[in-house]
Amino acid sequence: MSDILNYIEENPKETKRLIGMGYEQLQQLIYNAEQLHHKQQALLESKKVRIIAGGGGRKSKLSIKEQIILILVYLRHLTTFQLLGIQFGGSESTANDTFNYWLPLLRELLPSSLIEQVKKKNQTMK
After folding, report:
1. Which comes out higher in pLDDT, residue 116 or 59?
2. What is the per-residue pLDDT for 7?
3. 7: domain range?
4. CA nearest neighbour of 62 among 25, 89, 30, 86
5. pTM: predicted TM-score of the whole model, two decimal places
6. Cβ atoms within 10 A of the Cβ of 67, count?
7. Dihedral in degrees, nearest 10, Cα atoms 38, 13, 80, 126
8. How far apart are CA 35 and CA 47, in angstroms?
């Protein structure tokens, strides 16, 4: 488990400062995001034509909770993916892949103001 997730669970009052939302809101977001993730995975699985039974492959290093926290930390602080990879015990590409997977899913759940801040920052950097 990541240090940030441990810290949030031990100090729920600090959640707002770290990721921009309260602890109860975070718990609700995680629950809704997990439901959306499972629907997305079921949809992708139903479209596959399998020759070999499912369930193989490497499991993710980060739990769903940790992946969502990673996205929220990025949206709040706009840090680099390299630092996120280090903080969450992965690599820069893992942090980037996680961000790009979850962003479309969380667009349905998060206020658009958070997402728009990231879009504006990326456009000004280009």
Report:
1. 59
2. 92
3. 3-125
4. 89
5. 0.79
6. 25
7. 90
8. 19
